[in-house]
Amino acid sequence: MKSGLNKVTAALLAAGLAFSVQAADITIAYDADPVSMDPHEQLSGATMEMSHLLFDPLVRWTKDFQFEPRLAEKWERIDENTMRFHLRQGVKFHSGNELTADDVVWTFKRLKESPDFKAIFEPFSAATKVDDHTVDLVTKGPFPLVLNTLTYLFPMDSKFYSGSTDDGKNKGEVVKHGSSFASTHTSGTGPFKLKFRQQGVKVEYERNADYWDTKSPGNVQNMTLVPIKEDATRVAALLAGDVDFIKPVSPNDHARVESANGVKLVTEAGTRIITFQLNQDRFEPFKDVRVRQAVNYAINQDGIVKRIMRGFGTTAGQQPPAGYVGHNPELTPRFDLDKAKQLMAEAGYKDGFKISMIAPNNRYVNDYRIAEAVKAMLARINIDVDLKTMPVAQYWPEFDKCAADMLMIGWHSDTEDTANFSEFLTMTRNEETGRGQYNCGHYANPELDALIESANLETDGDKREVMLQRAEKILYDDAAFVPLHWQNLAWGARNNVEAELVVNAMDFPYLGDLVVK
């Protein structure tokens, strides 16, 4: 790690003012880098973390899941469908353009068109400019999750992203898994500017000297993110001093980090569920509820958590973890090998069948090991699995094509709310609304869809919880997917990196506030 002085520090020292922490340079090793610099191209943890570096949301979550004002410094409800947001004045984008209500309205419209994000913003009908620093967000009806949703609105520089490139392409176009102006050019309001990026090699950020949040304690001047796919190699880099901060630390390596000198293990309870989807559109037997139930009964979630995760996870029988409105305590894992064999026989598949399966090998903790374990478990009911694992940069394009019979996906609720799981993973696929965008099981149930839509308009908390619990029971009885566990989180850091203050259960640390002593 190197130390140096940024412009702000130098100015303070020149003025004779005390400054307790020098600026620092830091290298961070992750399992995978973001697939794009476009904040609206891929709804993923890596994209969200990048967004908090280069951009800023209107509102963000604190560590204890309270709402913290960011680019919106205050807000009030105008009527049951309208909330008014007052923007901070004097905030500048990296281009030098000033943030105004026009940028919020432009970004809102882009989110409504993004294949990955439009489902989140589907309950909203309009973003209306009141004046240069005031915006009204209007919902289609009473909506209890306005602030939750606006943690995903990172205003983009509308002047920078408007117009055409030299080859005539729209600068604001959202392109999935392809080259676009927004995927390679950035202008946000965030604590860092993009300095250099080579996909799969490294991303370099430098401190934004004009950052609006002068109260941020962050003192990192230059930050380099390098992808290191292998868990053990990532830990070795930390222990050797080649990197300063790593994510994640595999449960197999916890003791190794905890026992080493000069480094520490930082952990958080997580809410990301790891699942497998059963592709009914591609594989006919998965249309039979008995077959889907058999797959669920054949998988030993407790064994996966104990042996592969080393206890660093919580077995799951549904989408939302305990503590979420809608969590149903009656829905528990149902491992029963005899029951699984019975159901396969009843469905006419006593001798089993062959299926394809895909999983990433550098996205979730122990992802490929989990996939290998599930493959072995399914063999016990005569399901022969052709498993392919791949880096996440190759995985997402394959997943988006639903290119296998079983597909792994993890999901952290984008709004810290139960309905969001279904909105993306289990509601009927709908390109127009974005519902079911990540539902490669092609599960479709009008009753479930109606329940989620109704719950999203219900402002009575008790009634809403009953509706969401009922939705989870429907998914459980239908064996719509295979829940495995909620993944806990672990980072490794050198002792002078105050990681504890910036990591969170959402799994995208606020690195702009990171302090290195």
Automatic annotation (TrEMBL):
Organism from which the protein derives: Oceanisphaera arctica
Name of this chain's protein: Nickel/dipeptide/oligopeptide ABC transporter substrate-binding protein
Domain Solute-binding protein family: 67-426
One MF term in the entry's GO annotations: peptide transmembrane transporter activity
GO CC field: ATP-binding cassette (ABC) transporter complex; outer membrane-bounded periplasmic space
Similarity-based family: Belongs to the bacterial solute-binding protein 5 family.
Coiled coil region boundaries: none
Pfam family for this entry, one: SBP_bac_5
Signal peptide location: 1-23
Keywords: Signal, Transport
InterPro entries, per the entry: Peptide/Ni-bd, SBP_5, SBP_5_dom
GO biological process: peptide transport
